[in-house]
Amino acid sequence: MKIAENITVNIYGDGALKSDFVQAVADNGLEDILLVHGFESDKQKIFSRNDSLLLMSKSEGFPLVLLEAYACGKPVIVFDSFTAAKDLVAHGQTGFLLPYGDYQGVVAAVKQASHIEQTNVKAMFERFSNQRVFAEWDKLIGELDEL
Question: How far apart are CA 137 and CA 24, in angstroms?
Fold first, then answer.
């Protein structure tokens, strides 16, 4: 596998498989590319150190981390493997939606992420602001009251 130049992936979190993952990174000589950090609660700290967010999950409910990235003006790179991804990512405008397992596509998207306009990212974040979401809920509840 050819390693892309100038790409470092910071991985945050803990879990039952973390030690196995760290060992796999070492076994494959990827310690300079895949940097494994523990859990970090300070989202501003995370996003100030990274140019974009990679969410490589096979399934998710509603991934709040995408909105956290948008709040910090960061584009996202996501596998199109869960329903909410289509609602949260405008391909080529706020980030990139890729077929599950398309790691070559991930590398290409990382290289293109700097071309995403922050105004698009901020606009997507605003679609999910508390004010807008509460207004939608109020509207829905009002419609249900009329039934």
Answer: 45
Q: Where are the domains of the chain?
A: 41-145
Ordered strands of the 76-79 beta sheet: 53-55, 76-79, 95-98
For 31, 32, 138, the CA distances from 8, given in Å and listed in that order, are 10, 7, 44
Q: From the CB of residue 84, how many other CB atoms can be counted at a distance below 10 Å? A: 14
CATH architecture of the domain 41-145 equals: 3-Layer(aba) Sandwich (3.40)
pTM of the model: 0.80
Two tokens, residue 67: 């909105």
pLDDT per position as a tens digit, 44-89: 999 999 999 999 888 888 888 999 999 999 999 999 988 888 889 9
Is the Cβ–Cβ distance between 50 and 10 less than 8 Å? yes
Q: What's the rounded Cα separation, in Å, for the pair 43 and 40?
A: 7
